[in-house]
Design a protein that fits this description.
The chain has 6 helices and 2 strands, in the order H-E-E-H-H-H-H-H. It has 155 residues and is mostly helical.
């Protein structure tokens, strides 16, 4: 049987996993350098270069693959049903990336709001207007507590 078109970039799920692990190691060995200024003391104003952990991402993985002349786009593996044998390894790679970003955000290494947005995590606050709230369902002690808090909040 003669194959038509270019050969697959990813030979197998194991090949993709191996490349992902190479990217993970590269990201760990190549932190992002951030410059800042010393804000106080005798060295105030001096430039300070700090190394920050590089967050793992699909965008970073694809850039690493491109720079290493391996591939430039994994969307056919990630977003189509063309190669279903890759579903599990893609889920595992995504899981490693997500855990690293979540842990980094929890430790204050990464910006929490950016990581939360990327992960689809967000807090919502519902503001209930006073006229919408049914105070008749509250106990007398709860109503007294509300009145006390309102009094304390007055300037």
């Amino acid at each position: 049987v003669k194959r038509v078109g270019r050969p697959r970039v990813m030979k197998s799920p194991a090949h993709m996993w191996d490349l992902a692990n190479q990217y993970f190691k590269w990201a760990e060995a190549n932190p992002i350098e951030v410059q800042d200024f010393i804000r106080g003391g005798p060295n105030a104003g001096a430039v300070l270069t700090m190394k920050r952990q590089r967050p793992l991402s699909w965008m970073g993985f694809e850039a690493w693959l491109t720079l290493n002349h391996i591939a430039s786009d994994l969307s056919v593996y990630r977003f189509t049903n063309k190669y279903p044998e890759f579903f599990i390894v893609i889920r595992e790679i995504a899981s490693v990336m997500k855990a690293q970003k979540f842990d980094g955000a929890a430790a204050g290494i990464f910006k929490e709001n950016l990581i939360a947005r990327e992960m689809g995590l967000h807090e919502t606050t519902k503001i209930v207007q006073a006229e919408e709230f049914d105070y008749s369902k509250l106990s007398d002690s709860a109503l007294e507590e509300i009145a006390k808090l309102k009094d304390e909040a007055k300037p």
